UniProtKB/TrEMBL annotation, chains A, B:
UniProt pathway annotation: Amino-acid degradation; L-alanine degradation via transaminase pathway; pyruvate from L-alanine: step 1/1
Keywords: Aminotransferase, Pyridoxal phosphate, Transferase
Lineage: Eukaryota, Metazoa, Chordata, Craniata, Vertebrata
Cofactors, names only: pyridoxal 5'-phosphate
Keyword Transferase: yes
Name of the protein: alanine transaminase
E.C. numbers: 2.6.1.2
UniProt organism field: Apodemus speciosus
Record GO terms (molecular function): transaminase activity
Subunit-level organization: Homodimer.
């Protein structure tokens, strides 16, 4: 210890001594490309000359940041809850006041500032149950199976946390789609679980193929104990919407193989392509009847960050568990209680989740995105049926791939960085979500306002053309 | 798999197959006693006759639930941010409007509904840095060392997560005070780290004794690698406020023994006993000069849930890191980014953390609590100098201890459950926080309104007298 007193000590916590699982975590949606975008915004503010005047953040599904207006009713209710003196004001509609009073009644001390019970305020969970029942054509939902959370991410990680156990080859394996939303790979790295990739079929509009599921499962069995199957529907980043037949097949597969089903359905209100329809795993499971309906374990996740609300900043979400072991469910409640409770304003938004609106504009944006990309030689984009992302495939010239390798970058990272530097457009390389070896993609949200999106797509197409010329 | 199809399958996820670390988690503040309190409230609502008419929740530091009024200015600003149409209203003061406009300027799309960067909105972190500088008499604070979080709990778990590594005897050991706030034991169980207990000295008003720290450290060295020292000041549940001398000694100890310091200072604005003063670890560390000031790693945590704000439901908090390895700090940012961002309304409250108010009433409540308890034979209560809890020690008659053992309950759990059943008063047994073998305590908040608190203390004293009579 003498050396320490002589002031020669090193740090206690370094890259070498820190949690190796945390080191392995990667999260592309906010990775280096976003760091660079922040720097560029700084430089622009400082008046540094750039070939563009603003950075367009198409990297993350952040509706309000992209100009989507908050829905007045929700904000009126929240304002009334935050500052109840306003309940006397004539400037607020009666339905908003009624809703606010109902919410405050349910809060400790009638204040959003009180802790709630850890699983979320009971009347809110009852409202969520009603929302689910309406969504699923009357199939009952039990409020006691619903846990509110700090955005869907929190609930997803909590359920994974329960499922991770065992050592070595007995370690829990978790099947996730590739491309995936990187929360999954990040959480699995952090929890030191085994990530088992199954590939979505780009040739069939990112369809989920049971044969591929089976291949992934069988190959995984000699290195881990696969116990969980994660499905993202509508897809993120891939934007496909699963057919009812596909969902039934997935449920049968999970049941036969003894897998706990996790259904990430946060984009359930973002379905707009003609002929596409959202079917919840819960509804399909229940309609399949026993033994599936009575035994297959399922956790379904939803959020106020997406859909027509787009209230990302409030971090509201929930999970509904189906056929979960009663004792485990108690353990889940206990685990959540350690963090006390989800943010109450977010809970209040979840409480209002049932108010539906059409997404006509997103449908138009989705169509436009698909058209413009598919008119560009070298770019191929599947139909965007749901969610809020396109995940086009780009051919990259060999010279670009070589240049990227020289720079120690993934080729699509090199492409996206160049795009950002020259156009200010911030998209996320496909390598951050996973893709078939040798294919290159990027994820771009379709959220910018119509005019801006049109411009953005044109810029992107021209940049790609120039990029391919420069490197061939 | 045939058996599954025949419907004979068991659950994938059971107590036996679930994450054993999660199973080991315990969290007394929301444990069985609180479950029972919820049931009793249900029964009261259903008109079941009880020896009391309401359940008094003295189990958790939930100020608003206990009738503390939210501070108007904060709520006005939040209401304006939530529903900016109000910025035109004459009913809101100019300073609130200015503050709200400033906050909205800093939000993506000028909406609380947009994601923020993961470490928290930059101008907010700058304001927090200013708050810290004022608090510490001008010692500089760098906004880049401040990470906003979902309440302090989130930040505490994140820092612990970085620090946990190694296997077997090389596993990270974390020194925590006993009695402790059970977030620590819960998080360490979840992370499978080694909990190393050091006992606070009840005879010296729960003082932290360096000799005891050294004892705990030395005894721990043969079962783990102690790398972290957690200190809670002001104490939870013990309510003591550390002297500057004590803090200096702790820092010297941590430095010499190569320990990362975690200072839980969420009650820094809850110091009211005469002669008690809050000294931040950061300030003391900096004033000690090199090598401490330049090398000792420290993370200090604060929250909007406590202090004069008491806005628990918004889940706002922050951590300031000092002398943290730059690469590790990047890793911490990455880890936080996986959860996207802390709730933005909570961030806005953190932004306003600097507005101080006196806590005269809490001081009076603390005094009253101490007096009433110490007048009761068999109960002994240390002065409550800070935070919002008393942690009185109770002698339990042998027969009560035996009865508890017959029921398979910790004796103080048995006492608290009996108290709840007969009086409706909900407090938490000391066994949930840790206590010297053979001693019994409970944690009670001093938050109820003065009159209610007086009544509660009287009830409690009478119940204790009766309890001891019944069991002797």
């Amino acid at each position: 210890m003498a050396s320490r007193v002589n002031g020669l000590k090193g740090k206690v916590l370094t890259l070498d001594t820190m949690n190796p699982c945390v080191r392995r975590v990667e999260y592309a949606v906010r990775g280096p490309i976003v760091q660079r975008a922040l720097e560029l915004e700084q430089e622009l503010r400082q008046g540094v000359k750039k070939p563009f005047t603003e950075v367009i953040r198409a990297n993350i599904g952040d509706a309000h940041a992209m100009g989507q207006r908050p829905i007045t009713f929700f904000r009126q209710v929240l304002a009334l809850c935050v500052y109840p003196n306003l309940l006397g004001s004539p400037d607020f509609p009666e339905d908003a006041k009624k809703r606010a009073e109902r919410i405050l009644q349910a809060c400790g001390g009638h204040s959003l500032g009180a802790y709630s019970i850890s699983s979320g305020i009971q009347p809110f969970r009852e409202d969520v149950a009603q929302y689910i029942e309406r969504r699923d054509g009357g199939i009952p939902a039990d409020p006691n199976n619903i846990f509110l959370s700090t955005g869907a991410s929190d609930a997803i990680v909590t359920v994974l946390k329960l499922l991770v156990a065992g050592e070595g080859r007995a370690r829990t394996g978790v099947l996730i789609p590739i491309p995936q939303y990187p929360l999954y790979s990040a959480a699995l790295a952090e929890l030191d679980a085994v990530q088992v990739d199954y590939y979505l079929d780009e040739e069939r509009a990112w369809a989920l193929d049971i044969a591929e599921l089976r291949r992934a499962l069988c190959q995984a069995r000699d290195r881990c104990c696969p116990r969980v199957l994660c499905v993202i529907n509508p897809g993120n980043p891939t934007g496909q919407v699963q057919t009812r037949e596909c969902i039934e097949a997935v449920i049968r597969f999970a049941f036969e193989e003894g897998l706990f089903l996790m259904a990430d359905e946060v984009y359930q209100d973002n379905v707009y392509a003609e002929g596409s329809q959202f079917h919840s795993f819960k509804k399909v499971l229940m309609e399949m009847g026993p033994p599936y309906a009575t035994q297959q374990e399922l956790a379904s996740f939803h959020s106020v960050s997406k859909g027509y609300m787009g209230e990302c900043g409030f971090r509201g979400g929930y999970v509904e568990v189906v056929n979960m072991d009663a004792e485990v469910q108690k353990q889940m409640g206990k685990l959540m209680s350690v963090r006390l409770c989800p943010p109450v304003p977010g809970q209040a938004l979840v409480d209002m989740v049932e108010r539906q609106e059409v997404l006509a504009e997103l449908a138009a944006k989705a169509k436009l995105t698909e058209q413009v990309f598919n008119e560009a030689p070298g770019i191929r984009c599947n139909p965007v049926q749901g969610a809020m992302y396109s995940f086009p495939r780009v051919q990259l010239p060999l010279k670009a791939v070589q240049r990227a390798q020289e720079l120690g970058l993934a080729p699509d990272m090199f492409f996206c960085l160049s795009l950002l530097e020259e156009t200010g457009i911030c998209v996320v390389p496909g390598s951050g979500f996973g893709q078939q070896e040798g294919t290159y993609h990027f994820r771009m949200t379709i959220l910018p306002p119509m005019e801006k999106l049109r411009l953005l797509l044109e810029k992107l197409r021209h940049f790609y053309a120039k990029f391919t010329r420069d490197y061939s």
